[in-house]
Amino acid sequence: MTTYTDETAARTLVVESARSLFARGLTHGSTGNLSVRLADQSLLLTPTGSSLGTVTEAELSRTDVHGRHLDGPRPTKEAFLHAAFYRARPTADAVVHLHSTYAAALSARADLDPVDVLPPLTAYYAMRVGTLPLLPYHAPGDRTLEALAEETARTHHACLLANHGPVIAAATLGQAADAAEELEETAKLFFLLHGHPTRPLTPEQAAALTPIPSRRPETA
Ligand code: ZN
Asked: Which residues make beta-bridge pairs with 47?
């Protein structure tokens, strides 16, 4: 059963989350987009060309899980990425995609392991994000990224798009936004530590933690 059975409450939640991310500097301009999956499996997404700082409940767009536009304004051009994550992850009812500064900077580094680009610098990063694969660069809206994102999402709830930014799915929008914020802060730590001897969590320490993005009830 989906987390979001009340569409009106879900619209309010998307708008509140969008404004909170914008107000805290995690998105800028008209970048970044959010979505939730409703009980009928349709997706509510932020629309194309909108700022997460000013988007309203009535401006949200609706698509099916294949990214086909159903009603409302036209969806974000990156709707296919959201749809790919929902198809691959039946327990995910929310997706957050940002161009947040430090994660975007990380996505342009040439010296990182594309299998997992960030070390587990903190326990909360390990619990909320875990492994972060890097997907190769594609131009905005390039649909060839869709199959790759869907394949990656089957085994990972988060990925980083090269020269672009992160995509994160979770059971709830609150969990997806928390993970996106944890990723951004950990990317910032990674740059702050550059050139300093660093001791990430050991594989044993990381493995002993319980992942946070698990299904739990949330209002709306
Ligand atoms: Zn983007």
From this structure: 75
- Pairing verdict, β 158-161 and 134-135: parallel
Distance 31 CA to ligand 1 centre (A): 6
Q: Decide if 118 is inside a domain.
A: yes
Catalytic member of 57, 59, 124, 146: 124
Q: Burial letters for 120-129: b for 16+ Cβ neighbours within 10 Å, e otherwise?
A: bbeebbbbbb
Range of the domain at 69: 7-209
78 is catalytic: yes
| 219 inside domain | no
Alpha carbon of 208 to ligand 1 centroid (Å): 33
The pLDDT tens digits of the residues spanning 100-142 come to 999 999 999 999 999 999 999 999 999 999 999 999 999 877 8
